[in-house]
Design goal:
This protein is of the alpha+beta class. It has a domain of 199 residues: Thymidylate Synthase, Chain A. It contains ten helices and ten strands. Strand 7, helix 9 and strand 8 form a beta-alpha-beta unit. Helix 2 packs across helix 9. The longest helix is centred in the last third of the chain and has 20 residues. The chain is globular, with a radius of gyration of 19 Å. It starts with 6 loop residues before the first helix and ends in a 14-residue tail after the last strand. It binds 5,10-methenyl-6,7,8-trihydrofolic acid and the ligand O=c1ccn([C@H]2C[C@H](O)[C@@H](COP(=O)(O)O)O2)c(=O)[nH]1. The ligand O=c1ccn([C@H]2C[C@H](O)[C@@H](COP(=O)(O)O)O2)c(=O)[nH]1 binds next to strand 7 and helix 9. Pathway: Pyrimidine metabolism; dTTP biosynthesis. It is found in: Cytoplasm.
């Protein structure tokens, strides 16, 4: 097995070990507590359909892809996620609803109401101007909306040597209205002279057990779609983490994962090339040779 075949797991586990051994122990916003490292990097070769989807636990990669497609659609309401059986964002609107109403509604009931009642979803299911809004409809001071994704695709096609091919989620003026400020916040792209697309994601805050595996998957899938749309080959994905942390209630899960041996990485195929970046559907993605260790359950810190 060549090193490239286990590169994602190897880098993931090395970082996990480093957080456990050297991470600064501190109380975080959620009150759960973390061990935290500042400043980390990982690099992934995405050529030959390689994709950084972990094998040392089963990653719900389709959930991560659906989340990325939801960002791209400009969506900010969890209704569109729940309709696709994606529940990873429910906790935040649910907490807000419970705080506001004092009702002890359970998650399943809340999700059923979000799906069944459009008015309820509009009032309680929206996360505010989060990723999708900023990526596709960043509001300028003159009232004009900026589609950052369309601009990236356009630049990849017409100005591949540009050093300005990026989009940003950190809209300072709108942070207050967001359920959570963006974690994966800047994506920059770089085209080599032989037509390969490199990408870099800066993530200011990374929940290494639950968030990082999703964020690596999402960033890789996005790079693949952009490459396809611009007629480029997938190159290298660089991930940079700011505060990379392990929640203190994830220590047992981390130990269990560290004890597992990485398996050969799967391959991701895009089955169709839609006319635009807006045309992708979950059915367009196929993962071959994915034979992971079992999933590892963990509580998400809200
Ligand atoms: N503390 C925290 N960690 C995060 O990773 C995170 C947030 N908050 N807030 C916003 C989003 C939501 N994200 C999440 C939330 C939950 C899971 C999660 O529970 N994942 C499980 C099950 C996934 C499933 O199949 O539904 C996992 O095992 O990966 C993952 C990412 C990423 N982000
Ligand atoms: O895509 C995501 C979204 C969120 N996270 C994690 C990182 C932190 O643990 C929390 C956010 O809390 P902050 O106090 O705003 O940093 O969510 C992630 O890893 N990936």
């Amino acid at each position: 097995m060549s090193a490239a075949d286990t590169a994602a797991d190897d880098q993931y586990l090395a970082l996990l070990r480093q957080i456990m051994e050297q991470g600064d122990r501190r109380v975080d916003r959620t009150g759960v507590g973390t061990r935290s490292l500042f400043g980390a990097m990982a690099r992934f070769d995405l050529s030959g359909d390689r994709v950084p989807i972990l094998t040392t636990k089963r990653v719900s990669w389709k959930t991560a892809v659906k989340e990325m497609l939801w960002f791209l659609s400009g969506g900010t309401n969890i209704r569109e996620l729940i309709a696709q059986n994606v529940r990873i964002w429910t906790d935040w609107p649910l907490a807000a609803y419970r705080r506001a109403t004092g009702e002890a509604i359970d998650q399943a009931h809340f999700e059923r109401r979000i799906l069944a009642e459009p008015g309820f979803a509009e009032r309680w299911g929206d996360l505010g101007p989060v990723y999708g809004k900023q990526w596709r409809r960043w509001l300028g001071p003159d009232g004009r909306e900026h589609d950052q994704i369309a601009t990236v695709v356009e630049l990849l096609r017409t100005a591949p040597a540009s050093r300005r091919i990026l989009f940003h989620g950190w809209n300072v003026a709108e942070l207050g209205g967001m359920a959570l400020p963006p974690c994966h916040m800047v994506y920059q792209y770089h085209v080599t002279s032989d037509g390969r697309l490199n990408g870099l994601l800066f993530q200011r805050s990374a929940d290494h057990l639950l968030g990082t595996p999703f964020n690596w998957t999402g960033a890789a899938v996005l790079l693949r779609m952009l490459a396809d749309q611009a007629g480029l080959q997938p190159g290298t994905l660089v991930w940079m983490g700011g505060d990379v942390h392990l929640y203190l209630n994830h220590l047992d899960q981390a130990e269990a994962q560290l004890a597992r041996a990485p398996r050969p990485a799967p391959r991701l195929r895009l089955l169709r090339r839609p006319d635009s970046i807006d045309g992708y559907r979950i059915e367009d993605f196929a993962l071959d040779g994915y034979d992971p260790h079992p999933a590892i359950k963990a509580e998400v810190a809200v």
